[in-house]
Amino acid sequence: MRCNDLIARVVALFPETFVGVCMLPQSPKADMTNSIAELERCVDMGFIGCNLNPDPGGGHFQHPPLTDRYWYPFYEKMVELDVPAMIHVSGSCNPAMHATGGYYLAADTVAFMQLLEGDLFKDFPTLRFIIPHGGGAVPYHWGRYRGLADMLKKPDLSTHLMNNIFFDTCVYHHPGVELLTKVVPTSNVLFGSEMIGAVRGRDPDTGEYFDDTKRYVDACEALSEADRHAIFEGNARRVYPRLDAHLKAKGL
Amino acid sequence: MRCNDLIARVVALFPETFVGVCMLPQSPKADMTNSIAELERCVDMGFIGCNLNPDPGGGHFQHPPLTDRYWYPFYEKMVELDVPAMIHVSGSCNPAMHATGGYYLAADTVAFMQLLEGDLFKDFPTLRFIIPHGGGAVPYHWGRYRGLADMLKKPDLSTHLMNNIFFDTCVYHHPGVELLTKVVPTSNVLFGSEMIGAVRGRDPDTGEYFDDTKRYVDACEALSEADRHAIFEGNARRVYPRLDAHLKAKGL
Fold first, then answer.
1. What's the start-to-end Cα distance of chain A, in Å?
2. Contact A151 B199 (CB under 8 A)
3. Chain A residues 2-61 within an 8 A CB cutoff of chain B
4. Alpha carbon distance A3, B171 (integer Å)
């Protein structure tokens, strides 16, 4: 709650630059009651989305899968408020699991597979999740997931998941972003970058910051101008309708 | 032990086709004593490598990282026998973690990061690991790992890890294999495929088996003939010296 108040304060100070998404008071033994209340409070303050942690225990994956009924009351509130969630774990309490180098990408990948294995979006057709770090391992293994959907007798990924799941571009080299934009439909890729993020240095080979992801998108020659507009702006306005409304209210 | 005996039996029946690698009697509460004995027994039977499970608990990542002293007696035996290990988890006991779609790729990624964070290959300069499934998420996030090595004040990946870590080609679509072979040095990529593996079906778009990985390597136009020879044969002979000796003894 205090962190979200701080975010609201930053947004109030720099309204031309920022809009808020909230974190949630999740805990290994808690249900989602307090998170629902905090989401409502933050949306009332003008926030446009939230971060949902699929493993609040921090690195041992003890929580039920994202398709479990445990999460449903929260999803109902997300749908009611029309806000998406980024599925992103937090700190690692596991000495075998480095947070930004192991845990994050593992959790992204596991989350996607939980959703593939279930039928969550039949129950919540308008629920929307963003999986960060370019979807973890998923686009690199896109054939594997297409094949697993087939083996598990699920519909094609395009209808089974890709009306509801989106990936960001936080992949810190050009070949990765090129694969992402080649394999995953452009409508499912949202521009993402970091500042004071996981990888803070400059590439010694190029002198550029590893996490300056716009360069990698710019260098994807196969993207049309319409694709670029979708990745940099259009998709975000569609996935975060409250962002779109907020910008339109400013005449943008 | 019974499974390894069965593998030895298959090798004896089809010596022109197969050579053995062994599994190990690992268990969540056991040390590596029995695994060391079984590795010795299998190498005595002509096996050329082993499979090492970094998470014998099956999906909650409770084991110490691969850089921990827990593993050292086993590594000493690997070095003595000059056999590499594939780092590959087994079944998942976690309902939130689908084995082939979530757990495997997560474990591959976490293992690589454990090795990046430590200095294991300073202690064991000739120890060799194969990380399956094309390295999990690692090649897709190669910039992230280069940047993390830099942040953690480790040497460049080329010397810190890539004399000792190798990836297979079990990535089930061409763009993934192309990324792998573009980003990771050719000397670190070993041809791998599956039969009765994770993804058994045919791609409805092409009619081809998802796990027929040779097609994806063949389609990588940037690879020279020397690169292809390295990926299909040369690297395996170098990483598995007992395979090389075995083939040479047959005049191959």
1. 30
2. yes
3. 54, 59-61
4. 41
pLDDT digit string, tens, across residues B175-190? 999 999 999 999 999 9
Bridge partners of residue B130, in order along the sequence = B86, B166
Percent of chain B with pLDDT over 70: 100
| pLDDT tens by residue, A1-55 | 999 999 999 999 999 999 999 999 999 999 999 999 999 999 999 999 999 999 9
Q: Does A137 touch chain B (CB under 8 A)?
A: yes
By DSSP bridging, strand A49-52 and strand A189-190 are unpaired
CA distance B232 to chain A (A): 21
**How many CB pairs below 8 A link A and B?**
206
Whether residue A179 and residue B183 make contact (CB cut-off 8 A), yes or no, is no
Distance CA B240, CA B86 (A): 11
Active-site annotation holder among A40, A117, A194, A225 = A194
Say how far apart CA A163 and CA A125 lie, in whole Å.
8
Instruction: Check CB contact of A100 with chain B, cutoff 8 Å.
Output: yes
Exposure string (b/e) for A41-80, b if CB count within 10 Å is 16 or more?
Answer: ebbeeebbbbbbbbbbbbbbbebebbbeeebeebbebbee
Candidates A60, A110, A168, A178, partner chain B, best to mutate (most B CBs within 10 A): A110
A155-182 b/e (C-beta count within 10 Å ≥ 16 → b): eebeebbbebbbbbbbbbbbbbbbbbbb
CA–CA separation, B107 vs B54, rounded Å? Answer: 8
> How far is B174 from B213, CA to CA, in rounded Å?
8
